Amino acid sequence: MPVEKNRGKKISSWLVLSRLPFQTVGVFPFFLGILISRSQGYPLNLPVGILSTLAVILIMLATYYSGEYYDYETDRLNQTFNKFSGGTRVLISGLIPMSQVLMASFLCLAGAGVIGLLLFFYFKTGPYTLPLGAFGMICGFFYTTRPIQWAYRGVGEVLIGLCYGWLTVNTGYYLQAGGFDLIPILVSIPIGISIFLVILINEFPDYFSDRLSGKKNLVVRLGREKASVLYAVLSGVCFMAILFGIFYGVPKIIAALSAIPLIFIVQNLFSIKKGEFLGGKSLERICARTLMLNLGITLLYILSFY
Predict the structure, then answer these.
(1) Which of 91, 231, 243, 304 could form a disulfide with 251 if both were Cys (CB 3.0 to 4.6 A apart)?
(2) How far apart are CA 306 and CA 300, in angstroms?
(3) Which residues contact 202 (CB under 8 A, 6 or more apart)?
(4) Biggest alpha carbon distance in the chain?
(5) What b/e string do you get for 245-283 counting C-beta neighbours within 10 Å, with b at 16 or more?
(6) Which pLDDT tens digit goes with each residue over 128-176?
(7) Are the CB atoms for 258 and 293 separated by under 8 Å?
(8) Nearest of 239, 241, 244, 231 to residue 272 by alpha carbon
(9) Domain-by-domain residue ranges, the chain?
(10) How far apart are the C-alpha atoms of 39 and 256, rounded to whole Å?
(11) Structure pTM?
């Protein structure tokens, strides 16, 4: 019985470490790119769609696992985290050996690489298949992995915006359509900005531990006051980017649907103005609404192109 219990606890710990709910921020935009290609009359290549989606998931897993490993000291120092920041706490709690997590990260990265080669050489998905995949792998794996550690240098937020916005949508489109188009590019802009906002606001609870550990992300570099201004400005830009797309072929229904993300944006702006970004449950609610903003925008686009 104790063996069964330990096995069950280890499985649940790996599930927590894999951040399954957060897989949606990569899978949904990728699916949106596939959906846009179908809306333009390109036939669905199901094997390519399934394999490439699996590759996206593996890259995200490699990113999450390596992040937990290389952020261990920062997370250990963190006493102000909330459910959206500070890592999963699985390694801090000693539930899984660190060496296993790092090995899992390498294996996931290798699996994504094999799928990329299969897509390029067997399914002949086009010359940009490998560069697009390699870009995602390098940005994701080295987000916190030494020696590059994008997240420690003030560029990690931008790369996450590119990878979970432009890269996912346009790669999903490219692998099906065999080329690029203005529509997925326009659609990816508000998605990219909103995921940038997710990363930015999630750095606020970790401000003190990140500063102590030498993690020079944007919130540490700018300070919380200036970073909150950046958050507010980009929230407005995000909404304007949604409306901008309808002038260049994005379905006009998105203009009406944009009232939904606007609710989250306005709520967050009021919270920022009241100084709720400084900590506590109020900050956690801003983090939650920002994640819902990102997922909501993607889901509304999916509904628009369906």
Answers:
(1) 304
(2) 10
(3) 84, 85, 287, 290
(4) 63
(5) bbeeebbeebeebbeebeebbeebeebbeeebbebeeeb
(6) 999 999 999 999 999 999 899 998 888 999 999 999 999 999 999 999 9
(7) no
(8) 231
(9) 2-305
(10) 20
(11) 0.94
The letter for the amino acid at 261 is P
- One-letter identity of residue 140: G
